[in-house]
């Protein structure tokens, strides 16, 4: 038996699980057992410290994952069965040398994560989205759906508040682009953020939400709560609820959006739309709730519009042209994100929706990432009513003058 497993067994034998066990008491018991075991198995002080931490994590935290969760340089953790753990660090994927002791231990950790988020995961319900206490997003897939053992993917979030300035420091975009995004938020444009998996959609949404004036009432709607909106006092957070074991008491995103509309919001922020709730999201944006923000998966801004069409058709049978009309009147700006070859997350494109042209949604490009990784200005906002209405017009004009001066061709 491995030393770690031996220590776990001896510590477990000493604990009285009918009483509450504090972290300090558990650490003290572990330390005492290490002293006893070290008489038969001599070890260095550094090994004793490491062993004490590993046993504590195994009994109280998330076992081998705890060190990875506490490492701020790691952004994603992927567990493919008990033997295979991969991490994303500085935008690159690496295989982690450690692993769970066995499949049963991985299953225990998965159950711990699911129950902590008030979720149920088992053979009957093998696919679950959950979150950790710090807001990190978790996706769990159990056998027999996952053929080679249970899998769990953890998308970590930064511990510090995410702002546009924070994103600028990480070179996602320039300070001037951050100022443009801030203007869009303050002028209450309805914004849709698109991008692939792991492109930074939720991170950007968090950053932009910090630009919302503090006096507004904000309602967030998510399938698994992960948004971190800071400085907003009048905030209501709504989260979907899965059906119970009897298939009852489910609360889906459509119901949450309807509830939000009756709760006098200034803005509604929908974490991510994936299916027929897209129509409810469009209706929310079309019912006077300017400044709403949502996200979705797509390869480009135009692809996102097609996906929204498809998602609406999942829930209702209506003419495509009518759906396009809904999209064109609801969404003002689409921001598209992607990942560079080096793994960094970048803003690739900002486009404005200007209405309908011959049955198609008219898309007007505002900024695009060029070959030198600089956001190149392609055009100005056509709809400037909101800029004037919410006092952002002069700030916008000054910023446009900067971009025009920067991007004009040099005279020979």
Automatic annotation (TrEMBL):
Top-level taxon of origin: Bacteria
Pfam families found in the cross-reference section: T2SSE
InterPro entries membership: P-loop_NTPase, T2SS/T4SS_dom, T4SS_GSP_E_ATPase
Residues in Bacterial type II secretion system protein E domain copies: 63-340
Family (UniProt): Belongs to the GSP E family.
Protein name: CpaF family protein
Organism: Anaerostipes amylophilus
Organism ancestry: Bacteria, Bacillati, Bacillota, Clostridia, Lachnospirales
């Amino acid at each position: 038996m491995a030393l770690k497993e031996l220590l776990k067994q001896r510590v477990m034998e000493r604990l009285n699980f009918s009483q509450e066990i504090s972290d300090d008491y558990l650490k003290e018991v572990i330390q005492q057992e290490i002293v006893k075991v070290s008489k038969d198995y001599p070890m260095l002080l550094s090994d004793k410290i490491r062993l004490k931490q590993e046993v504590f994590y195994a009994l109280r935290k998330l076992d081998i994952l705890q060190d990875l969760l506490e490492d701020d340089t790691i952004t994603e953790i992927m567990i493919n069965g008990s033997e295979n753990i991969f991490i994303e660090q500085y935008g690159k994927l690496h295989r982690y040398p450690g692993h769970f002791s066995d499949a049963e231990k991985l299953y225990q950790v998965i159950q711990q994560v699911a129950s902590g988020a008030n979720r149920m995961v088992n053979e009957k319900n093998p696919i679950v989205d959950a979150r950790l206490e710090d807001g990190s997003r978790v996706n769990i897939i159990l056998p027999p759906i996952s053929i080679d053992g249970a899998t769990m993917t953890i998308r970590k979030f930064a511990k510090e508040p995410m702002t546009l300035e924070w994103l600028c420091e990480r070179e996602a975009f320039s300070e001037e682009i951050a100022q443009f995004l801030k203007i869009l938020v303050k002028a209450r444009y309805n914004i849709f953020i698109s991008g692939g998996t792991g492109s930074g959609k939720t991170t950007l949404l968090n950053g932009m939400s910090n630009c919302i004036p503090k006096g507004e009432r904000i309602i967030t709607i998510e399938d698994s709560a992960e948004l971190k909106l800071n400085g907003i006092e009048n905030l209501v957070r709504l989260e979907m609820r899965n059906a119970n074991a009897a298939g009852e008491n489910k609360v889906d995103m459509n119901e949450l959006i309807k509830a939000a509309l009756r709760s006098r919001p200034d803005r509604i922020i929908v974490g991510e739309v994936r299916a027929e709730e897209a129509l409810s999201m469009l209706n929310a944006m079309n019912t006077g709730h300017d400044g709403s923000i949502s996200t979705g998966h797509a390869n480009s801004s135009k692809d996102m519009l097609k996906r929204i069409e498809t998602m609406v058709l999942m829930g209702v049978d209506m003419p495509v042209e009518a759906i396009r009309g809904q999209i064109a009147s609801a969404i003002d700006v689409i921001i598209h994100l992607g990942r560079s070859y080096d793994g960094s997350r970048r803003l690739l494109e900002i486009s404005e929706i200007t209405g309908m042209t011959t049955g198609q949604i008219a898309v007007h490009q505002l900024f695009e990432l060029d070959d030198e990784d600089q956001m190149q200005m392609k055009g100005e906002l056509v709809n400037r009513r909101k800029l004037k209405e919410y006092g952002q017009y002069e700030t916008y004009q000054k910023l446009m003058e900067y971009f025009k001066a920067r991007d004009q061709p040099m005279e020979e």
